[in-house]
Write a structure and sequence with these properties.
The complex is a heterodimer of chains A (367) and B (246).
Chain A (H helix, E strand, L loop, with lengths): L1 H14 L2 H15 L5 E3 L1 H7 L2 E6 L9 H14 L4 E6 L3 H13 L2 E7 H6 L1 H9 L3 E5 L6 H14 L4 E3 L10 H9 L1 H10 L9 E5 L4 H7 L8 E9 L10 H4 L1 E5 L2 E5 L24 H9 L2 E7 H15 L5 H12 L9 E6 L7 H6 L1
Parallel strand pairs in A: 2-12, 3-4, 3-6, 4-5, 7-8, 7-12, 8-11
Antiparallel strand pairs in A: 1-2, 9-10
Helix pairs in contact in A: 2-4, 4-5, 4-9, 5-7, 9-11, 10-11, 14-15
Chain B lengths: L3 E7 L5 H13 L4 E5 L10 H12 L4 H8 L8 E4 L2 H5 L3 H10 L4 E3 L5 H4 L11 E3 L1 E2 L8 H7 L6 E4 L12 H17 L4 E4 L5 H8 L4 E4 L1 H9 L1 H14 L2
Parallel strand pairs in B: 1-2, 1-9, 2-3, 3-4, 4-5, 6-7, 7-8, 8-9
Classes of the chains: A alpha/beta (367), B alpha/beta (246).
Bound molecules: pyridoxal-5'-phosphate.
């Protein structure tokens, strides 16, 4: 608790610090490749009957939006005098982004990853090791993302004086959901500027996939005061029974995990349910608490799509636009396609393409 | 002065029968307080031994109701607290959960994932003669000590975590003792609540050293390890601990 207090105080200090903001802006531009384009998807628009723009987070360094948060938090860690960084990862995207910034800043790096994910995402494990990180396999519990997070928290309380815990989504105890949201909000602030010339009144709707919820929070945040409809798309997996999906907002109930009160997939006895998604990055039984708030207040709406719908959307976007999205991001595309009849030809719709599909292509190749 | 011995057992581990037998032995060996773990799927404060015990108990069907019915079969005069994480109680609703736990004979509840700040709002849900135990740690800062005084009511003890880490970790040396002593005297200035030190106590010697300035010690991982070997090794450990604490 004292550490979380220190973290919050340190964070509030750097947010007021012009030097910090400038340093981060330079890194975002020159290292991560920001601003990412807002791309008019012409053929997808023609097919779906709305004017669809893709926010191209897939073009970020390391291939996903995760780097936005990692750069911000690594700078923060350095300001706080921490030389060692730990993180949890599911798909390995956040692990790779963390290992990347650790290499860049010359920090020690340990990544916790569930055994099942180590097996499913062997290529990302290799990438993390190339970048100089130590990957620790987590064999407890369901051996996936939530267990990796448990283990990272255990490490953090053990090595709290030397170690910075770099959480990868808008989950975990306060102030993490706030910090990660702020560092990801660059996505939405850019998009708001970029969409202005083509939609003076702003977009009609914005779609983003929701695992922990960081890319969705990132693109939603700047649009909360606007009239844009905000739609988060969860992983409906292979069915509605527990263990077959990871749709915390649409099928979960209030619960407490990893220091947040939020929507959670848990059994009647309070134990956390196993989860499934074709997209390893959506495989988390909880969700950022701010999404639970946006849902309750009605400001955002949440839906789910199945593995199969996401896979079909992956192929659609690849064939129509030459952009293979990450399986996670394919959920956002699928969510829009499912609801395309709601929109008129003149409506502007944004889809956040949170990452690129290269990491997932080997899985298609195997089948 | 006699120091209190608190022993942690996971409900229904290694089996319902062994758990109940272990509790009998604890009563016979003069254990002052039994801490019964209601197993949770994601025990973030626990090391590998308690994690494994929790998983095994969950797989064998130990849940809230089963833990309450096991508790009713414990030695009647053995004082007991329930240790668990917030979600199993939250989903039942705090007031209902606390009153059921109280009716099963527990005098309080230990929730390692609830910091003292978050414990305070729960106090209004407590039945009579029932307490919540706040956790303090070497990283606890002086400006928060008053919160402990407010939270540790109704006969509550303060759970002082001996180290930076999780249950079952290795204890430090003299520097650790000095750090704990400072923290204990800070707590004593604001509250009369008893202070029990836990995490990492393996032997009688550890127990004696950590209890020097506190009111007792809590032994969990070592107890489960001994119990996994059998009732006899478990009884031997308790005797060693009891002797070390006078
Ligand atoms: C490309 C991509 N999108 C989305 C996610 C899900 O995370 P979040 O919901 O925090 O954006 C991940 C996580 O690994 C990811 O790699």
């Amino acid at each position: 608790m004292a550490q979380l207090g220190d973290l919050e105080a340190g964070y509030r200090r750097v947010r007021r610090d012009r030097g910090f903001t400038r340093e981060l802006a330079v890194l975002q531009r020159e290292y991560a490749g920001r601003p990412t384009p807002l791309y008019f998807a012409e053929r997808l628009s023609a097919e779906s009957g709305a004017r669809v723009y893709l926010k191209r987070e897939d073009l970020c360094h390391t291939g996903a939006h995760k780097i936005n948060n990692c750069l911000g938090q690594a700078l923060l860690a350095r300001r706080l005098g921490k030389r060692r960084i730990i993180a949890e990862t599911g798909a390995g995207q956040h692990g790779v982004a963390t290992a990347t910034v650790a290499a860049k800043f010359g920090l020690d790096c340990v990544i916790y990853m569930g055994s099942k994910d180590v097996e499913r995402q062997a290529q990302n494990v290799f990438r993390m090791k190339l970048l100089g990180a130590e990957v620790r396999e987590v064999k407890s519990g369901t051996q996936t993302l939530k267990d990796a997070m448990n283990e990272a928290l255990r490490d953090w309380v053990t090595n709290v004086e030397t170690t910075y815990y770099l959480i990868g989504s808008v989950a975990g105890p306060h102030p993490y959901p706030m910090i990660v949201r702020d560092f990801q909000s660059v996505i939405g602030f850019e998009a708001r500027r970029q969409v202005k010339p083509v939609a003076a009144k702003g977009p009609r709707a914005i779609y983003a996939c929701v695992g922990g919820g960081s890319n969705a929070m990132g693109i939603f945040y700047a649009f909360i005061p606007t009239r844009a409809e905000l739609i988060g798309v969860e992983a409906g997996g292979t069915g509605s029974r527990p263990g077959r999906h990871s749709a915390s907002l649409t099928r979960g109930r209030a619960g407490i995990l990893h220091g947040s009160l939020t929507k959670l997939l848990s059994a009647p006895d309070g134990n956390v349910s196993p989860v499934h998604s074709i997209a390893a990055g959506l495989d988390y039984p909880g969700v950022g608490p701010e999404h639970a708030y946006l849902q309750r207040s009605g400001r955002a709406r949440y839906i789910s799509v199945t593995d199969r719908e996401a896979l079909a959307a992956f192929h659609r976007l690849t064939k129509l636009e030459g952009i293979p999205p990450a399986f996670e991001s394919a959920h956002a595309v699928a969510g829009f396609l499912k609801e395309r009849r709601r929109y008129r030809k003149s409506d502007v719709v944004l889809i956040n393409v949170s990452g690129r599909g290269d990491k997932d292509i080997p899985r298609l190749f195997e089948k | 002065m006699k120091k209190n011995l608190v022993v942690y057992l996971t409900a229904g581990y290694p089996s319902a029968g062994m758990f109940l037998k272990a509790a009998e032995v604890a009563w016979d060996e003069g254990v002052d307080l039994l801490e019964v773990g209601l197993p949770f799927s994601d025990p973030i404060a626990d090391g590998p031994v308690i994690q494994a015990a929790s998983q095994r108990a969950i797989r064998s069907g130990v849940d809230f109701d089963r833990t309450m019915s096991l508790a009713r079969r414990l030695p009647p005069h053995l004082a007991r607290v329930l240790m668990t994480y917030s979600n199993p109680l939250f989903v039942r609703g705090w007031p209902l959960a606390f009153s059921e736990i109280s009716r099963a004979g527990f005098s309080g509840c230990v929730l390692p994932d609830v910091p003292v700040e978050e414990l305070l709002p729960l106090i209004s849900f407590l039945p009579e003669n029932f307490y919540l135990t706040p956790f303090a740690a070497p990283t606890t800062t002086g400006d928060r000590l008053n919160l402990y005084a407010t939270a540790a009511r109704g006969g509550a003890f303060i759970y002082l975590v001996s180290l930076r880490g999780i249950t079952g970790a290795a204890l430090g040396g003299a520097a650790q003792s000095a750090e704990l002593e400072r923290l204990i005297s800070g707590l004593r200035r604001v509250t009369h609540a008893p202070i029990y030190v836990g995490f990492g106590v393996q032997t009688g010697r550890d127990a004696a050293r950590l209890a020097a300035h506190a009111d007792g010690v809590i032994v969990g991982t070592a107890a489960l390890r001994a119990l996994a070997l059998g009732i006899k090794p478990f009884a031997r450990l308790l005797r060693e601990l009891r002797t070390a604490l006078f």
